[in-house]
């Protein structure tokens, strides 16, 4: 076993320095968290992002005047960003991805769903019914393939969610682009992919929740293997829906406060699922706004609902960390705390109008808040150190395998505008280091998983409900291991589609050579976490290892 990183001599030297040089000790306190701006920017506006391998993120914009072009002269609207060196690989597309959605199928194929009007001059076709497929790769060879008529109806601002059977459900949206939905533009239906007879199935809930029902909040409900339930929410209302029987199982009480859906955009998250409380389903919805007024202060509340007993389920209101916010992003961190970041203190989502004279949102909220669902009401939120970059409409954020958070985007104008406006199109990328990376706790390095030492050279296949042997190296002779399986999701417009965090049981820890071996039990079934890609974090005393491992949960 290697010695602990903090040996006694280090501590005594620090003490001596403090005595000899008192000013040194009163030097600025070590920051508990921090943002780092990367040298290489995103190249295109980061409207949608999705982690596709341990070191790669696919960024999708719409067709617009980004300053990079494909060989045929058309603007790049999708690329693969390499986290190791910031290099970009352009991914040609032929349909407009403007405000689309997406998710992974259980077999690992990523699907981008829907989009908007054709852009004739740049030779992009309509994306309203498009399905775009890519099998994520690490060799720089995979590309999108498109089916322009893959869906049975137009979907702009729809939500896609991976189901327990490995298919996608694509729900709602509008039939054309619009600043606010209406009866004339609404698409109150859903459909599945794949499906033998593609068709749009009526979903009246999206009529009832007009006009604020775009990018509906959809979460797969944890439960036994044969359960077929979703939590669906729009505007101020939610319900439990059986996607197999096409039936509303339970209507939930309305959530007090503002509307939570586009353009009064809030965000929603299925809180971490833990075996010790039988994967208790809890949804947290935060932020939004009451009125479509750029000056109106954003919503300062969150609602949490425990869905383990549907007859008793009701919202518990909380204060949104003292920072009213519209367009927040919610990222479940590697330790199971949830980070809320990005967004504005005033206004709504949407493009500024009249040549950028009229902003839709102002007063960017630069301070992220950390939410701990394990703490009592009133003590769950904590403010962290602020960023310097406003992230308004079309901003994104996701956890990455090294435990940091990748943050990009903000394009509040209808086209790319780099100067002369209060909030220009933002190409800078930030990496945020959560407080757990400042604890100086020894971090595990995963050496092998399920007998394979080919870590992060491609997904390692694992099965539900099975123990998986994991070996780690760590400089700590009294480690305390926990584990979590994370699906980062498809992220756009404050909607973290299919994001999931599941605590895994760790058994049979034994010390071996330079490290430890343990069994990590995979989640019981596809309703706890859908099949497809997942990242396994091994934590030591709450601090994630150097990198999570890319797994593939088999159907
Ligand atoms: C996954 O399933 C989809 C739909 O059936 C199919 O198009 C795709 O090729 C499959 N991907 C893999 C990697 O098998
Ligand atoms: C699901 O499985 C459980 C236990 O195996 C059974 O009790 C229940 O009736 C099943 N439900 C459905 C809808 O098939
Ligand atoms: C934001 O909203 C607050 C609260 O409603 C208001 O006092 C303030 O003037 C607004 N600020 C801007 C920049 O619109
Ligand atoms: C591993 O741990 C589990 C749960 O504590 C126990 O039931 C099982 O017997 C252990 N297996 C081995 C090989 O020690
Ligand atoms: Cu949009």
TrEMBL record:
CDD domains xrefs: E_set_GO_C
Taxonomy, superkingdom: Eukaryota
Signal sequence interval, chain numbering: 1-26
Glyoxal oxidase N-terminal domain boundaries: 76-436
Keyword Lyase: no
Any Pfam family matching the protein: GO-like_E_set
Keywords: Signal
InterPro entries: Gal_Oxase/kelch_b-propeller, Gal_Oxidase_central_sf, Glyoxal_oxidase_N, GO-like_E_set, Ig-like_fold, Ig_E-set
Domain Galactose oxidase-like Early set: 457-547
Full protein name: 7989_t:CDS:1
Species: Dentiscutata erythropus
Lineage of origin: Eukaryota, Fungi, Fungi incertae sedis, Mucoromycota, Glomeromycotina
């Amino acid at each position: 076993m290697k010695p602990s990183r903090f040996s006694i001599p280090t501590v005594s030297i620090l003490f001596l320095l403090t005595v000899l040089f008192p000013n040194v000790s009163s030097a600025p306190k070590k920051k508990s968290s921090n943002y780092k701006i990367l040298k290489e920017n995103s190249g295109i506006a980061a409207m949608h992002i999705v982690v596709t391998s341990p070191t790669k993120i696919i960024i999708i914009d719409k067709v617009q005047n980004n300053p990079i072009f494909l060989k045929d002269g058309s603007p790049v609207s999708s690329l693969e960003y390499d986290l190791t060196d910031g290099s970009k690989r352009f991914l040609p597309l032929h349909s407009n991805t403007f405000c689309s959605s997406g998710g992974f199928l259980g077999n690992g194929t990523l699907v981008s769903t829907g989009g908007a009007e054709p852009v004739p001059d740049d030779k992009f076709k309509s994306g309203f019914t498009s399905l775009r497929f890519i099998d994520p790769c690490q060799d720089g060879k995979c590309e999108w393939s498109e089916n322009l008529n893959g869906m049975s109806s137009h979907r702009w601002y729809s939500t896609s969610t991976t189901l327990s059977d490995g298919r996608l459900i694509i729900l709602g949206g509008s039939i054309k682009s619009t600043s606010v939905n209406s009866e004339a533009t609404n698409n109150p239906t859903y459909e599945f992919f794949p499906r033998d007879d593609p068709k749009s199935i009526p979903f009246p809930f999206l009529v009832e929740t007009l006009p604020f029902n775009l990018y509906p909040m959809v979460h797969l409900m944890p439960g036994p293997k044969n359960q077929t339930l979703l939590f669906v929410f729009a505007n101020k209302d939610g319900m439990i829906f059986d996607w197999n029987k096409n039936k509303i199982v339970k209507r939930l009480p309305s959530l007090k406060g503002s509307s939570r859906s586009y353009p009064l955009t809030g965000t929603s998250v299925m809180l971490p699922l833990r075996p010790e409380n039988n994967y208790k389903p809890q949804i947290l919805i935060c932020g939004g706004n009451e009125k479509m007024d750029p000056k109106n202060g954003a919503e300062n509340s969150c609602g949490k609902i425990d869905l383990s007993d549907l007859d008793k389920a009701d919202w518990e209101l909380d204060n949104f960390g003292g920072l009213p916010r519209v367009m927040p992003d919610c990222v479940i961190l590697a330790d199971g705390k949830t980070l809320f970041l990005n967004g504005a203190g005033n206004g709504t989502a949407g493009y500024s109008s009249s040549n950028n004279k009229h902003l839709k949102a102002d007063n960017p909220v630069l301070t992220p808040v950390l939410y701990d669902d394990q703490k009592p009401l009133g003590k769950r939120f904590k403010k962290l150190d602020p960023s310097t970059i406003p992230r308004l409409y079309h901003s994104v954020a996701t956890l990455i395998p090294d435990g940091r958070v990748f943050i990009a985007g903000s394009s509040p104008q209808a086209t790319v505008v780099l100067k002369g406006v209060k909030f220009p199109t933002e190409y800078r990328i930030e990496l945020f280091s959560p407080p757990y990376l400042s604890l100086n706790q020894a971090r595990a390095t995963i050496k092998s998983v399920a007998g394979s030492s080919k870590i992060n050279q491609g997904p390692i296949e694992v099965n539900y409900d099975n123990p998986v042997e994991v070996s780690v190296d760590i400089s700590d002779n009294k480690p305390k291991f926990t584990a979590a399986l994370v699906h980062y999701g498809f992220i756009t417009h404050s909607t973290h589609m299919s994001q999931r965090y599941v605590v895994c049981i760790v058994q049979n820890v034994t010390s071996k050579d330079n490290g430890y071996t343990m069994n990590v039990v995979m989640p019981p079934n596809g309703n706890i976490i859908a099949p497809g890609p997942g990242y396994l974090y091994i934590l030591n005393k709450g601090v994630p290892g150097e990198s999570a491992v890319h797994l593939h949960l088999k159907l």
